[in-house]
Design brief:
The chain is mainly β. The chain has one domain (about 15-630): TonB-dependent receptor, beta-barrel domain (Maltoporin, Chain A), CATH 2.40.170. The chain has four helices and 37 strands. A hairpin with a 3-residue loop joins strand 22 and strand 23. The longest helix is centred in the N-terminal third of the chain and has 24 residues, at about 15-40. It is globular.
Length: about 625
Amino acid sequence: MSYKHRTGDSCPGSYQTCRSIQLTALLLASILAIGQAAAQDTAAVSEEIIVTSSRLPLPVSRLGTSVSSLDEDAIESYGNQAVADILRQLPGVTTSSSGGMGQPTSVRIRGEEVFRTLTILDGIRIQDPSGVQIATPFEHILSEGLGRIEVLRGPQGLAYGADAGGVINISSSRTDAGLLFSGDLQSGRYGSNQLNVTLGGGAQAVDYFISATDYSSDGFNARQSDTTLMDNDGYENTSLHGRLGFAIAEKLRLEMVHRDVDAESEFDGCFTLTRVEDCVARSNISASRIALNYAGETFNHSLSFNSTDTDRDSFASNAFSFGADGELRRWEYIGSAKGLPGFDLVFGADQEEATNNGVGRDNSGVFLEYLSDFSNSLFLTAGIRQDENDDFGSNTSHRLSAAFLQQTGSGTLKIRGAYGTGFRAPSPFEIAYNSGPFAFPPAAGISLAQEESRGWEVGLEYFVDQLHLDAVYFDQDVENAIYFDFSTFSGYLQDIGKGNSRGIELSAELPLSEIWQLVANYTHNDTERPDGSPRLLRPENLFNAGALYTSNNGRVRFAAYYRSQTDAQDIGDVSVDGYDIVDLNASIQVSESLRIYGRVENLLDESYIQVTDYNTAASAAYIGLNYSLTR
């Protein structure tokens, strides 16, 4: 299918804007047509269970918040090696990378900064406390061994901590019973090779999962301005992830998780006395979590401790340039009371200490959330959180949500809305930099204030059998946003006033037949700083679509994905051109244990950029073998 823009068309704006309007109209027309057809069938409301919204397993029909989810089959159908490449195809999510695999990568939810996005893997907070801000190092998270992803959009300062402007909750693969062994080997362009071995099992009293991944790539020249060496910038990643859980007693369970990542990234443009193109960054991230869980008939309790240590070293022309280290220690208690007269409760407390290059800070918080249970059609939540921060005192956050279900023929219409707030204290690094020797006016000596965020949304969802349609309008503000002064490199400044991000999200899961499924989403996001200028690297239009085929016997699978984005700005008011990318992924189950798969990324060899001066991958093909054994 092609879209043409001819001289004299009535569509306003650029070609990219017109094309986005056309694609949106096509999506809406498809939703309307298939929704009307599906309404003639008999079906029930989807009862997919979501745990991310309120830290309590809830049917999706009860949620007033916006949550996207991917199961293990969906993750496999995308086929991407980096989790960020999968996340960017979900509604409201954008990514930007400074080069290829292993290069700094930002994942933004509804236009918010990467350090306002909290990422959790098997309960571990995947955050780098050694960086400028405590943020997720998405460039080092590979997709092997993952069983489920949930993305909660909007300010979520209630149950997770006040600086969570969105939550990505990831779970490793799980085996209910028996034994699962999997060996996976793939290879492709840019000298990319990956080996993964997983072992998992489950029984009545114990379950375990171990995943070991070794990835390497020669890469490509990451930076366009590197006209000296013009060398390939490679990447190596060795990731180990283990999970163990066992029942101490009938209602008491102990869980332990450990994750270790050793990564080395080559990059261009580090600075010593002069600019150097031959640069290397080495990172070690070690994180552990231990949790004791009690599951009763009415009350559930979970007490956990999370520890993260990060060391980073950078080298210029094989000489040490600089290093950084950080530690994160977090105690967390989560409790819930179910089956109370007409309502449930979720409550908790946490204490966190973050240390960046020897400078530490404590933050403690308590929260309580009410979840109504007095109606089969109306669901309400109301929660409040109180934080005590070493440097910035007391802060209060809250969240309200509502969902109303209405039967419409054989389907169900859900009307929902949510409002939430949060805050982020300036990081120890940001504060220390402005008082250090490298800062100068106007940033030198500035006392940074905390950022405050708030957002609301309203949405409509329609369920019938496997058909799911969703439309959301969102509007959220960040006040006193902190940013680095790229004009004069003086240090960290603040946008005095409110920055805004608002727009619509449309998504659809459409079963076309027993063997074909269509998934699609469109996001329109207007962002602006207090002075009215656009926020950087926030595309105004995002469109994703996928067609998935599964043979009747389940042995052959094929998926084609299309994604595009338009109207983004970078530093210096530079426009980032829009682009159109097509990816293909296919697999054949040769035998009960052996699967052959392959994929082509950027099939049409689109030349595009995500960040000014940084290259992206050309068309690349990969092939792999997977051997799985279950008992």
